[in-house]
Amino acid sequence: MVRITGWVITLLMLGGCTAPLQPVVPAPKPATSPAPEVVPYDRYLLINTRPDEAQRNPLHQIVNINLPLNLKLTVGDAFAWLLKQSGYSLCVDDHPTQFLAGKPLPLSQYRLGPMRLEEALKTLAGPGWLMQTDVLNREVCFHLNTSGTGDDHA
């Protein structure tokens, strides 16, 4: 019995030694991004090195407008207030935009937000107007919505 067990163990050991060897293939290295997305900054702080959405497109920043109720303001005043530190300006030589800017500001729009700047501008203009942006000159213009539905915002 001991002899048979010895033979079995020997055969198992030799069987494991005679298996054909496979060539060793090096593991592929993971692709590394050119710039890290999060890096250590200071002792216990990690920061994201990529710009956020509002930094890439200033019209996507979140705004909250609270204009004084005792002033008689126009839509143009509200546009100027919203665009003041955005880097954008209202078209100055555009007649439809100037026509819209001269309209009185509804009392319900003295307080807007928090919402994206782009949506706040469209809300101030109303459904009868389409907003067009010139990203090269950083200008915002408004033109009549001629589609007839009154619900389109460009």
TrEMBL record:
Domain of life: Bacteria
InterPro entries: Integr_conj_element_PilL (IPR022260)
Name by which UniProt lists this protein: Response regulator
Species of the source: Buttiauxella warmboldiae
